Amino acid sequence: MKKIFEVARWEYIEKVKTKTFIISLILTPAVLILFSIAPTLLSEQEVSNTKAIGIIDTSGLYIREMKEKLSDYKIKDSQPNYLLINLTAKNRLLEDLKKFSDKEALKGKIEGYILIENAGTDSVAVSYRSKTLGNLRDISRFQSSFNEVRIKLKLDKENVNPYLLDFISQSVEMNQIKIEEGGRETENDFLLTFFSSFIFIMLLMMMILYSGGMLIRSLVEEKSNRLIEIIISSCTPNELLSGKILGLSALGLTQIFIWILIGISLAGTAVVPLEAFQNVLPILVYFVLGFVFYTSLFVGIGSIVTSEQEAQQITTYLSFLLVLPIIFVLPALENPDTLYIKILSYIPFTLPSFMMLRLNISPIPAWEILSTILIMLISIYLMIGFSAKIFRIGILSYGKRPTVKELIQWLKE
Amino acid sequence: MLVVENLRKEYKNVVAVDNISFKVEEGRIFGILGPNGAGKTTTIRTVLSIIKPNSGKISFNGKPITNEFFNIIGYLPEERGLYRKSKVIDVIRYFAGLKKMPRKKANTEARNWLQKLEIEQYMESRIEELSKGNQQKIQFIISVIHNPKLLILDEPFTGFDPISQTLIKEMILSFVTSGKIIILSTHQMETAERLCSDILLMNKGKEVYQGSLNNLKRNFGSNTVKIEFEGDAGFISSLPVVKNTDRYSNYAEVQLNDNINPSEFLRMIVDKVNIKKFSVLEPTLNKIFIDVIKQTQAK
């Protein structure tokens, strides 16, 4: 036992000090935050000054109403978001107006302009012309404003009650409520669930890849300079293997602990919504179990690798296995009760990520949580046994990578 | 006493070690010699229980080897290398810890050894900052820091400069007086000659010779002398005591018949040619290897 701790302490302390660890510690959450939150933040922040938007409407029917509608959109300091400029000049052909306005847009004097053609008829057409394709949100605002005005004009003409007019232009959004045992209910946001599941799976994957890579590299180093022989003449292969798994798991826990600290300090802010921390306890259990499982696998596989290149190849193959759950995030979200999602959440390789995913989507009965945890524990036990058999021989075979047949032979010994 | 009996290790299509037996007593240095692929390293690994033999018995002081044995073995493998990015003191402490040495004791012993090998100034340096020779010294320290009863050294001198070689040689000799069992595997005849009391010569997994080194040289020596001279030495090759001559412009290597003593031969030629230097050529280990291989093939 003492030797296991000796190995674990060495693996832990030497790896905690490495640059790779420190970088992955900070970089991983940073990358995730960047990918999940930044796009929204960026597009929201973009609006810092009023946009000058032109409008051409030779009929003159829409201009006043459009101005009114668009002035409802404000940016900070209650400045208007859009300044609508009427580019329609009397007694000029539409073609000339277009030519002139295009020039203005290209020169950058206006952001772009709304062109309304055939106004007052049923075949009215509207387009937004600008140098660059417009911001999606701007376009949808212009479009809905225009349509509201169009309906209003028509109803006015037919002398419809203005109250009815308001009623028609309002639409009701459907709320999604996730119900749980014990009367708890939470308002559910599809995107939020997606991102919080996605973040945990990504974190697990990146962590396994980082530390698995580190593990394989250090095994290759020990093999290539025959340090392994000194170690194996000091302790049994099983002690070495257990020590390595223990040390690396401690490393993983340190990483999770620091990430949780980061998470808590950011919780409730725009960056990490509080809802991402639902079910955090069972998710952590799966996270840790998944990490230990894959670490045990990496130790076994790492022991047969003989060079840095091979190490890279193998890490790549294994990473495909790890990316797999990400592909299923969307279908699982849409339909968490599908049979194959359930099956995948009982196979040890994919179990942790799929359970994390399902926990986020819908309530999971206690028996299922307990049985999957049990499966994971048994799988870890079996995986360590499997790795130990390969490890024993693998660490002492140099030069040639063993064939599958040889591996099976080792497992039988 | 370390006793190895009828050791045999087979791999898929080769017998790496074939029925090897030997004994090493306390305070003796036992040399295992042989060409590449002779089975030296496999023998060593089996003794270290890094690999399991197919058959054979290894015992230490009458007891079979168990896991407790780990803590009294010191091993210096032939291929060197350490954790490059780690600190010298940390690496030494780690390996001492693996031998169940208490941390405090490991610290003081590490300091002692670094002092003895004159590299204490590198205690806090990273391994990769050290020269190759100094890295090897660290590796030597790792193999001896826990005061092992059995020390196995595989080519301990390669890569050291002459000063360090002498330093290490002195260390090894001091272990002899403190009653350690030492197994040394080497290619260097000179080293084996100075240090080993007994040797085992192996080829293709089999024992070729076991006993004292002097005997071996007598068995495989070719009774050859080297003469440097001035004048015409053409007559030498026609002498009846000469088996074979290799003549160059101002020196010759002469192989004598087995029953002729080199000094007898010197008397025969000393008046006839101006001799500048006369020496008896010791067979190199290399030569012995070649002869051995030839002999075993002839059988």
Keywords:
A: 413 residues, 2 domains, 65% helix, 8% strand, elongated, B: 299 residues, alpha/beta, Rossmann fold, Alpha-Beta Plaits, 4-stranded antiparallel beta sheet, 9 helices
Number of helices of chain B: 9
Instruction: Quote the beta fraction of chain B.
Output: 25-35%
Distance between the termini of chain B: 34 Å
Give the CATH class of the largest domain in chain B. Alpha Beta
Euclidean distance between termini CA atoms of chain A: 25 Å
Helix content of chain A: 55-70%
Mean pLDDT of chain B: 86
Structural class of chain B: alpha/beta
What is the global morphology of chain A? elongated
Mean pLDDT across all amino acids of chain A: 80
- Number of domain units of chain A: 2
Which residues of chain A sit in consecutive blocks of at least 5 with pLDDT less than 50? none
Can you offer a commentary on this structure?
The complex is a heterodimer of chains A (413) and B (299). Chain A is built from 16 helices and eight strands. Chain A is an alpha/beta fold. Chain A has two domains: 2-40 and 189-412, no CATH class; 48-169, D-Maltodextrin-Binding Protein, domain 2, CATH 3.40.190. In chain A, strand 2 and strand 3 form a beta hairpin. In chain A, helix 2 (19-36) runs antiparallel to helix 8 (190-224), helix 8 (190-224) runs antiparallel to helix 14 and helix 10 (237-266) packs antiparallel against helix 11. By secondary structure, chain B is α/β, with parallel strands linked by helices. Chain B has two domains: 2-218, Rossmann fold (3-Layer(aba) Sandwich); 222-281, 2-Layer Sandwich (Alpha-Beta Plaits). Helix content of chain B is 33%, strand content 29%. Chain B contains nine helices and 14 strands. In chain B, a hairpin with a 3-residue loop joins strand 12 and strand 13. At the A-B interface, helix 1 and helix 9 of A face helix 2 of B.
